[in-house]
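Z., the sequence and structure:
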Amino acid sequence: MAHPLVDQLRFTRSEFQRGIGDTPIADGNIQLGPMNSIGWIVGHMAWHEQLYWLTRMQGVTPVPALDDLVATGKPATTPPLDEMLEAWRTTTSAADAWLDRVSQASLAEPLRSSPVPRTIGSALLRVTYHYWFHTGEILAIRQQLDHPDRPEFVGPALDSEHPYRPEAE
């Protein structure tokens, strides 16, 4: 069984996907004013998971193009939503095997090669909170684009599939 914080990350990913919903591919490339495009957001979250769980912790980078295209601090881009969804699926799937091995003890270990002192546990929280920030941004974009049937609140899967559970002693 995965650590409860990993379960919460996975729930958060599912809400991120729910927020993207049935966004038309063309709309995923629209950049409204200073906001990021949905395609960039999806790629950016793929980059973030790849950086922490794959590149830093395992020394592998399955989608190296993300480093130039959607990394923090890089020039703004509007990458195709379908390509970024594929990159996101690739990186999150690759990260899952490692995340399944996260334990209470390993949460206190340092995140390798981090430019600031950060534990695996803090990194896990950071990625989870980062998803919520960008999920809100996606929903704001979709609202501006007048997409129908946008999610309006955290989905019912929280109670049914991802309720609170304490870490086993």
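The CA atoms of residues 29 and 132 lie 20 Å apart. The mean pLDDT is 93.

Let me know what you think.
H.
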